[in-house]
Amino acid sequence: MTLNGFPRIADDPAVCGGRPTIAGTRMRVSDLLEMLAAGASQDDILADFPYLSLDDVRGALAFVAHAADHPIVLAAE
Questions:
Q1: Residue scoring higher pLDDT (1 or 61)
Q2: What span, in angstroms and rounded, lies between the C-alpha atoms of 65 and 77?
Q3: What is the CA angle 40-8-23, rounded to 5?
């Protein structure tokens, strides 16, 4: 099942324990981000995982950017 607003990202409890994955694959979003963080380029990743597309990589980055954003709530004094 893809996530609302993120058609490239799925969260199926039967796939990778329900962790967010690239839709239609078993590639976890976290694995893709770890590769990017370690210095792999998008081209490197796409060459190593030909079942992924540039839109998959961009979709994962958009998903994580959205997930990392949160409202700041200030407590009343």
A1: 61
A2: 31
A3: 90
Parent domain of 25: 2-62
- pTM of this prediction? 0.84
Domain-located, residue 72: no
Domain-embedded: residue 28: yes
According to the model, what pLDDT value does residue 13 have?
Answer: 93
> Quick one: pLDDT at residue 69?
85
Q: Which residues fall within 8 angstroms of residue 29, CB to CB, at 6 or more apart?
A: 9, 19, 20, 21, 22, 60, 63, 64
Q: Report the number of distinct structural domains present in the chain.
A: 1
